[in-house]
Protein backbone atom coordinates (compact mmCIF):
# COMPACT_ATOMS: atom_id res chain seq x y z
CA UNK A 1 0.00 0.00 0.00
CA UNK A 2 2.81 2.41 0.83
CA UNK A 3 4.51 1.84 -2.49
CA UNK A 4 1.25 2.41 -4.33
CA UNK A 5 0.62 5.60 -2.41
CA UNK A 6 4.01 7.07 -3.10
CA UNK A 7 5.08 5.83 -6.49
CA UNK A 8 1.85 4.69 -8.06
CA UNK A 9 0.82 1.34 -9.43
CA UNK A 10 1.62 0.28 -12.98
CA UNK A 11 -1.73 1.65 -14.12
CA UNK A 12 -1.17 4.97 -12.39
CA UNK A 13 2.25 5.28 -13.98
CA UNK A 14 0.62 5.32 -17.40
CA UNK A 15 -1.43 8.38 -16.58
CA UNK A 16 -0.27 11.77 -17.75
CA UNK A 17 1.13 14.33 -15.36
CA UNK A 18 -1.47 15.82 -13.06
CA UNK A 19 -2.14 19.58 -13.44
CA UNK A 20 -0.13 20.22 -10.28
CA UNK A 21 2.78 18.10 -11.50
CA UNK A 22 2.86 20.07 -14.75
CA UNK A 23 2.88 23.38 -12.86
CA UNK A 24 5.55 22.04 -10.53
CA UNK A 25 7.74 20.93 -13.43
CA UNK A 26 7.50 24.39 -15.01
CA UNK A 27 8.25 26.06 -11.67
CA UNK A 28 11.29 23.88 -11.00
CA UNK A 29 12.48 24.27 -14.59
CA UNK A 30 12.42 28.06 -14.42
CA UNK A 31 14.24 27.98 -11.09
CA UNK A 32 16.98 25.63 -12.36
CA UNK A 33 17.22 27.71 -15.55
CA UNK A 34 19.19 30.22 -13.51
CA UNK A 35 21.64 27.65 -12.21
CA UNK A 36 22.84 27.37 -15.79
CA UNK A 37 22.57 31.13 -16.29
CA UNK A 38 24.63 31.98 -13.22
CA UNK A 39 27.33 29.43 -14.03
CA UNK A 40 27.88 30.86 -17.51
CA UNK A 41 27.51 34.42 -16.21
CA UNK A 42 30.71 33.91 -14.23
CA UNK A 43 32.39 32.19 -17.18
CA UNK A 44 31.45 35.02 -19.54
CA UNK A 45 32.22 37.86 -17.15
CA UNK A 46 35.50 36.41 -15.88
CA UNK A 47 37.82 37.78 -18.62
CA UNK A 48 36.41 41.30 -18.18
CA UNK A 49 36.62 41.08 -14.38
CA UNK A 50 40.19 39.77 -14.57
CA UNK A 51 41.19 42.63 -16.90
CA UNK A 52 39.34 45.30 -14.89
CA UNK A 53 40.82 44.22 -11.57
CA UNK A 54 44.29 43.25 -12.83
CA UNK A 55 44.17 39.64 -11.61
CA UNK A 56 46.78 36.98 -12.43
CA UNK A 57 46.12 33.24 -13.04
CA UNK A 58 46.66 32.33 -9.38
CA UNK A 59 44.44 35.24 -8.28
CA UNK A 60 41.72 34.12 -10.69
CA UNK A 61 41.79 30.54 -9.43
CA UNK A 62 41.70 31.74 -5.83
CA UNK A 63 38.74 34.04 -6.54
CA UNK A 64 36.72 31.25 -8.18
CA UNK A 65 37.58 28.84 -5.35
CA UNK A 66 36.50 31.34 -2.70
CA UNK A 67 33.21 31.89 -4.51
CA UNK A 68 32.70 28.15 -4.69
CA UNK A 69 32.94 27.87 -0.90
CA UNK A 70 29.32 28.99 -1.08
CA UNK A 71 28.56 25.58 -2.54
CA UNK A 72 29.81 23.95 0.67
CA UNK A 73 27.91 26.40 2.87
CA UNK A 74 24.71 25.45 1.02
CA UNK A 75 25.00 22.22 3.04
CA UNK A 76 23.22 23.91 5.94
CA UNK A 77 20.33 25.14 3.80
CA UNK A 78 19.81 21.71 2.26
CA UNK A 79 19.92 20.05 5.68
CA UNK A 80 17.16 22.38 6.90
CA UNK A 81 14.88 21.01 4.16
CA UNK A 82 14.67 17.76 6.14
CA UNK A 83 13.89 19.70 9.31
CA UNK A 84 11.53 22.48 8.20
CA UNK A 85 10.26 21.26 4.85
CA UNK A 86 11.07 21.49 1.15
CA UNK A 87 8.67 24.35 0.34
CA UNK A 88 9.90 27.10 2.72
CA UNK A 89 13.53 26.39 1.93
CA UNK A 90 12.93 26.56 -1.81
CA UNK A 91 11.26 29.94 -1.42
CA UNK A 92 14.06 31.31 0.76
CA UNK A 93 16.74 30.19 -1.69
CA UNK A 94 15.00 31.76 -4.70
CA UNK A 95 14.60 35.14 -2.99
CA UNK A 96 18.12 34.98 -1.54
CA UNK A 97 19.69 34.31 -4.92
CA UNK A 98 17.73 37.16 -6.51
CA UNK A 99 19.03 39.66 -3.96
CA UNK A 100 22.61 38.42 -4.30
CA UNK A 101 22.50 38.61 -8.09
CA UNK A 102 21.48 42.25 -7.86
CA UNK A 103 24.22 42.97 -5.34
CA UNK A 104 26.80 41.32 -7.61
CA UNK A 105 26.07 43.94 -10.25
CA UNK A 106 26.79 46.63 -7.66
CA UNK A 107 30.09 45.13 -6.43
CA UNK A 108 32.86 47.72 -6.51
CA UNK A 109 35.88 45.54 -5.75
CA UNK A 110 37.16 42.00 -6.16
CA UNK A 111 36.42 41.19 -2.52
CA UNK A 112 32.88 42.58 -2.72
CA UNK A 113 32.31 40.49 -5.84
CA UNK A 114 33.63 37.39 -4.08
CA UNK A 115 31.42 37.87 -1.00
CA UNK A 116 28.12 38.42 -2.82
CA UNK A 117 28.84 35.67 -5.34
CA UNK A 118 29.70 33.31 -2.49
CA UNK A 119 26.32 34.05 -0.92
CA UNK A 120 24.64 33.68 -4.32
CA UNK A 121 26.13 30.18 -4.62
CA UNK A 122 24.81 29.30 -1.16
CA UNK A 123 21.25 30.10 -2.19
CA UNK A 124 21.49 28.92 -5.80
CA UNK A 125 22.88 25.47 -5.03
CA UNK A 126 20.54 25.12 -2.08
CA UNK A 127 17.66 25.82 -4.48
CA UNK A 128 19.01 23.28 -6.95
CA UNK A 129 19.30 20.58 -4.29
CA UNK A 130 15.77 21.12 -2.97
CA UNK A 131 14.45 21.13 -6.55
CA UNK A 132 15.97 17.68 -7.08
CA UNK A 133 14.35 16.43 -3.89
CA UNK A 134 11.01 17.75 -5.16
CA UNK A 135 11.58 15.92 -8.46
CA UNK A 136 12.26 12.66 -6.63
CA UNK A 137 9.34 12.89 -4.20
CA UNK A 138 6.54 14.37 -6.32
CA UNK A 139 6.84 12.28 -9.50
CA UNK A 140 6.35 8.51 -10.02
CA UNK A 141 9.31 6.13 -10.17
CA UNK A 142 9.11 5.55 -13.93
CA UNK A 143 9.39 9.30 -14.59
CA UNK A 144 11.97 10.45 -12.05
CA UNK A 145 14.83 10.10 -14.51
CA UNK A 146 12.96 12.01 -17.20
CA UNK A 147 11.97 14.83 -14.84
CA UNK A 148 15.51 15.20 -13.50
CA UNK A 149 16.72 15.24 -17.11
CA UNK A 150 14.21 17.98 -17.98
CA UNK A 151 15.52 20.11 -15.13
CA UNK A 152 19.05 19.78 -16.47
CA UNK A 153 17.82 20.81 -19.92
CA UNK A 154 16.31 23.91 -18.30
CA UNK A 155 19.69 24.73 -16.78
CA UNK A 156 21.30 24.35 -20.21
CA UNK A 157 18.73 26.71 -21.70
CA UNK A 158 19.88 29.20 -19.08
CA UNK A 159 23.40 28.67 -20.40
CA UNK A 160 22.25 29.39 -23.96
CA UNK A 161 20.34 32.49 -22.92
CA UNK A 162 23.29 33.90 -21.00
CA UNK A 163 25.77 33.09 -23.78
CA UNK A 164 23.50 34.74 -26.36
CA UNK A 165 22.81 37.86 -24.30
CA UNK A 166 26.34 38.42 -23.02
CA UNK A 167 27.84 40.03 -26.17
CA UNK A 168 25.00 42.56 -26.18
CA UNK A 169 25.19 43.21 -22.44
CA UNK A 170 28.97 43.66 -22.48
CA UNK A 171 28.54 46.49 -25.00
CA UNK A 172 26.23 48.39 -22.67
CA UNK A 173 27.44 51.11 -20.31
CA UNK A 174 27.12 48.69 -17.40
CA UNK A 175 29.42 46.10 -19.00
CA UNK A 176 29.68 42.77 -17.19
CA UNK A 177 27.47 44.06 -14.36
CA UNK A 178 24.46 44.04 -16.68
CA UNK A 179 24.70 40.24 -16.84
CA UNK A 180 23.83 40.00 -13.16
CA UNK A 181 21.12 42.66 -13.25
CA UNK A 182 19.32 40.80 -16.06
CA UNK A 183 19.79 37.50 -14.24
CA UNK A 184 17.87 38.73 -11.21
CA UNK A 185 14.69 39.95 -12.92
CA UNK A 186 12.97 36.62 -13.76
CA UNK A 187 13.64 35.18 -10.32
CA UNK A 188 11.80 38.10 -8.75
CA UNK A 189 8.77 37.01 -10.77
CA UNK A 190 9.23 33.39 -9.72
CA UNK A 191 9.19 34.40 -6.06
CA UNK A 192 5.57 35.54 -6.49
CA UNK A 193 4.59 32.03 -7.60
CA UNK A 194 5.10 30.68 -4.08
CA UNK A 195 1.36 30.41 -3.46
CA UNK A 196 1.13 27.58 -6.02
CA UNK A 197 3.82 25.41 -4.47
CA UNK A 198 2.87 22.67 -2.00
CA UNK A 199 4.94 20.75 0.49
CA UNK A 200 5.78 17.27 -0.81
CA UNK A 201 3.43 14.49 0.28
CA UNK A 202 6.35 12.28 1.32
CA UNK A 203 7.72 14.94 3.66
CA UNK A 204 4.30 15.56 5.24
CA UNK A 205 3.79 11.83 5.75
CA UNK A 206 7.24 11.43 7.27
CA UNK A 207 6.75 14.44 9.57
CA UNK A 208 3.41 13.22 10.85
CA UNK A 209 4.89 9.85 11.77
CA UNK A 210 8.40 10.79 12.90
CA UNK A 211 8.49 14.50 13.67
CA UNK A 212 11.14 17.02 12.69
CA UNK A 213 14.69 15.88 12.07
CA UNK A 214 17.51 17.21 14.18
CA UNK A 215 21.26 17.04 14.24
CA UNK A 216 21.08 13.42 15.39
CA UNK A 217 19.52 12.41 12.08
CA UNK A 218 22.14 14.43 10.23
CA UNK A 219 24.96 12.62 12.01
CA UNK A 220 23.20 9.30 11.56
CA UNK A 221 24.17 9.34 7.89
CA UNK A 222 27.89 9.27 8.57
CA UNK A 223 27.72 7.09 11.67
CA UNK A 224 24.92 4.72 10.74
CA UNK A 225 24.27 2.07 8.09
CA UNK A 226 24.29 4.55 5.19
CA UNK A 227 27.83 5.74 5.91
CA UNK A 228 29.39 3.74 3.08
CA UNK A 229 26.86 5.05 0.55
CA UNK A 230 27.49 8.61 1.64
CA UNK A 231 31.25 8.22 1.22
CA UNK A 232 30.98 6.55 -2.19
CA UNK A 233 28.45 9.01 -3.64
CA UNK A 234 30.31 12.00 -2.17
CA UNK A 235 33.58 10.74 -3.67
CA UNK A 236 31.95 10.41 -7.08
CA UNK A 237 30.66 13.99 -6.88
CA UNK A 238 34.02 15.38 -5.71
CA UNK A 239 36.07 13.55 -8.33
CA UNK A 240 33.67 14.61 -11.08
CA UNK A 241 33.72 18.26 -10.00
CA UNK A 242 37.52 18.25 -10.10
CA UNK A 243 37.20 18.22 -13.88
CA UNK A 244 33.79 19.65 -14.75
CA UNK A 245 34.05 22.82 -12.67
CA UNK A 246 37.25 23.95 -14.39
CA UNK A 247 36.53 22.56 -17.86
CA UNK A 248 34.03 25.26 -18.84
CA UNK A 249 35.06 27.95 -16.34
CA UNK A 250 38.56 28.44 -17.72
CA UNK A 251 37.96 27.61 -21.38
CA UNK A 252 37.30 31.22 -22.38
CA UNK A 253 40.54 32.35 -20.73
CA UNK A 254 42.37 29.55 -22.57
CA UNK A 255 40.73 30.53 -25.87
CA UNK A 256 41.46 34.25 -25.46
CA UNK A 257 44.94 34.08 -23.94
CA UNK A 258 46.36 30.95 -25.59
CA UNK A 259 44.48 30.78 -28.89
CA UNK A 260 44.02 34.49 -29.52
CA UNK A 261 40.23 34.38 -29.90
CA UNK A 262 38.10 37.48 -29.33
CA UNK A 263 35.39 37.91 -26.67
CA UNK A 264 32.76 37.82 -29.41
CA UNK A 265 34.16 34.61 -30.93
CA UNK A 266 34.31 32.93 -27.54
CA UNK A 267 30.71 33.91 -26.72
CA UNK A 268 29.57 32.61 -30.10
CA UNK A 269 31.34 29.29 -29.53
CA UNK A 270 29.74 28.88 -26.11
CA UNK A 271 26.29 29.71 -27.45
CA UNK A 272 26.67 27.35 -30.42
CA UNK A 273 27.95 24.60 -28.14
CA UNK A 274 25.02 25.03 -25.76
CA UNK A 275 22.58 25.02 -28.68
CA UNK A 276 24.16 21.87 -30.06
CA UNK A 277 24.16 20.12 -26.70
CA UNK A 278 20.56 20.91 -25.77
CA UNK A 279 18.86 18.37 -28.11
CA UNK A 280 21.19 15.71 -26.73
CA UNK A 281 20.28 16.64 -23.16
CA UNK A 282 16.62 15.92 -23.89
CA UNK A 283 17.77 12.33 -24.36
CA UNK A 284 19.45 12.14 -20.94
CA UNK A 285 16.12 11.62 -19.17
CA UNK A 286 15.25 8.72 -21.46
CA UNK A 287 18.77 7.36 -21.15
CA UNK A 288 18.41 7.46 -17.37
CA UNK A 289 15.25 5.37 -17.66
CA UNK A 290 17.24 2.62 -19.42
CA UNK A 291 19.74 2.51 -16.56
CA UNK A 292 21.81 4.86 -14.42
CA UNK A 293 25.02 2.87 -14.95
CA UNK A 294 24.60 2.77 -18.72
CA UNK A 295 23.97 6.52 -18.77
CA UNK A 296 27.09 7.09 -16.68
CA UNK A 297 29.30 5.01 -18.98
CA UNK A 298 28.22 6.95 -22.07
CA UNK A 299 28.24 10.42 -20.52
CA UNK A 300 31.58 10.10 -18.76
CA UNK A 301 33.14 8.79 -21.96
CA UNK A 302 31.97 11.92 -23.75
CA UNK A 303 33.34 14.03 -20.89
CA UNK A 304 36.82 12.61 -21.40
CA UNK A 305 36.73 13.24 -25.16
CA UNK A 306 35.28 16.74 -24.89
CA UNK A 307 37.69 17.89 -22.18
CA UNK A 308 40.70 16.71 -24.15
CA UNK A 309 39.50 18.39 -27.34
CA UNK A 310 38.73 21.75 -25.71
CA UNK A 311 42.26 22.20 -24.41
CA UNK A 312 44.36 20.39 -27.02
CA UNK A 313 42.76 21.18 -30.39
CA UNK A 314 42.66 24.41 -32.38
CA UNK A 315 40.42 25.89 -35.05
CA UNK A 316 36.89 27.13 -34.47
CA UNK A 317 35.07 24.07 -35.93
CA UNK A 318 36.99 21.53 -33.82
CA UNK A 319 36.82 23.71 -30.73
CA UNK A 320 33.07 24.23 -31.13
CA UNK A 321 32.55 20.48 -31.55
CA UNK A 322 34.68 19.71 -28.50
CA UNK A 323 32.90 22.37 -26.48
CA UNK A 324 29.51 20.98 -27.56
CA UNK A 325 30.50 17.52 -26.34
CA UNK A 326 31.85 19.04 -23.13
CA UNK A 327 28.72 21.10 -22.43
CA UNK A 328 26.59 18.00 -22.93
CA UNK A 329 28.81 15.87 -20.71
CA UNK A 330 29.20 18.46 -17.94
CA UNK A 331 25.44 18.96 -17.87
CA UNK A 332 24.68 15.28 -18.49
CA UNK A 333 26.58 13.84 -15.54
CA UNK A 334 24.62 16.05 -13.13
CA UNK A 335 21.18 14.37 -13.49
CA UNK A 336 22.85 10.96 -13.28
CA UNK A 337 24.51 11.82 -9.98
CA UNK A 338 21.42 13.69 -8.77
CA UNK A 339 19.32 10.59 -9.45
CA UNK A 340 21.66 8.38 -7.44
CA UNK A 341 21.89 10.89 -4.60
CA UNK A 342 18.14 11.27 -4.09
CA UNK A 343 17.29 7.61 -4.74
CA UNK A 344 19.76 5.78 -2.50
CA UNK A 345 18.51 7.23 0.81
CA UNK A 346 15.15 7.11 2.69
CA UNK A 347 12.73 10.04 2.80
CA UNK A 348 13.63 11.19 6.32
CA UNK A 349 17.31 11.41 5.33
CA UNK A 350 17.04 12.34 1.65
CA UNK A 351 17.75 16.08 1.79
CA UNK A 352 20.41 15.56 4.46
CA UNK A 353 22.03 12.91 2.27
CA UNK A 354 22.11 15.36 -0.63
CA UNK A 355 23.65 17.90 1.71
CA UNK A 356 26.40 15.52 2.80
CA UNK A 357 27.11 13.94 -0.60
CA UNK A 358 26.95 17.00 -2.84
CA UNK A 359 26.77 20.24 -0.88
CA UNK A 360 29.48 19.44 1.68
CA UNK A 361 31.82 16.56 0.82
CA UNK A 362 31.27 16.52 -2.93
CA UNK A 363 31.77 20.26 -3.28
CA UNK A 364 35.29 19.99 -1.90
CA UNK A 365 36.27 19.04 -5.45
CA UNK A 366 34.25 22.00 -6.72
CA UNK A 367 36.28 24.36 -4.52
CA UNK A 368 39.72 22.78 -4.93
CA UNK A 369 39.59 22.37 -8.71
CA UNK A 370 39.89 26.05 -9.78
CA UNK A 371 42.48 26.66 -7.07
CA UNK A 372 44.70 23.82 -8.33
CA UNK A 373 44.07 24.60 -11.99
CA UNK A 374 44.89 28.28 -11.42
CA UNK A 375 48.16 27.31 -9.73
CA UNK A 376 49.07 24.82 -12.47
CA UNK A 377 48.05 27.24 -15.25
CA UNK A 378 50.46 29.88 -13.94
CA UNK A 379 53.27 27.38 -14.55
CA UNK A 380 52.17 25.21 -17.47
CA UNK A 381 49.21 27.02 -19.06
CA UNK A 382 45.49 26.23 -18.98
CA UNK A 383 45.77 23.47 -21.60
CA UNK A 384 47.93 21.02 -19.61
CA UNK A 385 46.37 22.11 -16.29
CA UNK A 386 42.77 21.30 -17.24
CA UNK A 387 43.67 18.24 -19.34
CA UNK A 388 45.24 16.63 -16.27
CA UNK A 389 41.91 16.82 -14.41
CA UNK A 390 40.42 14.17 -16.73
CA UNK A 391 41.95 11.54 -14.44
CA UNK A 392 39.53 12.41 -11.63
CA UNK A 393 36.19 11.60 -13.34
CA UNK A 394 37.81 8.43 -14.70
CA UNK A 395 38.18 7.28 -11.09
CA UNK A 396 34.60 8.42 -10.39
CA UNK A 397 33.28 6.22 -13.21
CA UNK A 398 35.06 3.20 -11.75
CA UNK A 399 33.42 3.89 -8.37
CA UNK A 400 29.97 4.10 -9.99
CA UNK A 401 30.34 0.84 -11.90
CA UNK A 402 31.79 -1.05 -8.94
CA UNK A 403 29.83 0.33 -5.99
CA UNK A 404 26.46 1.86 -6.99
CA UNK A 405 23.52 -0.39 -7.75
CA UNK A 406 20.99 0.16 -10.52
CA UNK A 407 18.03 2.26 -9.35
CA UNK A 408 16.12 2.90 -12.59
CA UNK A 409 12.48 1.80 -12.46
CA UNK A 410 12.42 0.94 -8.76
CA UNK A 411 10.43 2.71 -6.04
CA UNK A 412 12.25 4.97 -3.59
CA UNK A 413 11.51 2.45 -0.86
CA UNK A 414 13.35 -0.22 -2.86
CA UNK A 415 16.31 1.91 -3.94
CA UNK A 416 16.95 3.17 -0.40
CA UNK A 417 17.07 -0.33 1.09
CA UNK A 418 20.46 -1.60 2.18
CA UNK A 419 21.73 -4.56 0.18
CA UNK A 420 23.08 -7.71 1.90
CA UNK A 421 26.71 -6.60 1.55
CA UNK A 422 25.96 -3.28 3.26
CA UNK A 423 23.97 -4.99 6.00
CA UNK A 424 26.85 -7.37 6.71
CA UNK A 425 29.28 -4.45 6.81
CA UNK A 426 27.09 -2.70 9.40
CA UNK A 427 26.75 -5.86 11.46
TrEMBL record:
Chief location: membrane
Membrane topology (UniProt): Multi-pass membrane protein
Taxonomic lineage: Bacteria, Pseudomonadati, Pseudomonadota, Betaproteobacteria, Burkholderiales
GO MF annotations in UniProt: carboxylic acid transmembrane transporter activity
Major facilitator superfamily (MFS) profile domain location: 24-408
UniProt protein name: MFS transporter
Organism for this UniProt entry: Pseudoduganella buxea
Keyword field contains Transmembrane helix: yes
Subcellular location: Membrane
GO terms for cellular component: plasma membrane
Transmembrane segments: 24-42, 62-81, 88-108, 114-135, 147-168, 174-193, 230-253, 265-288, 295-314, 320-341, 353-376, 382-401
Pfam name, any one: MFS_1
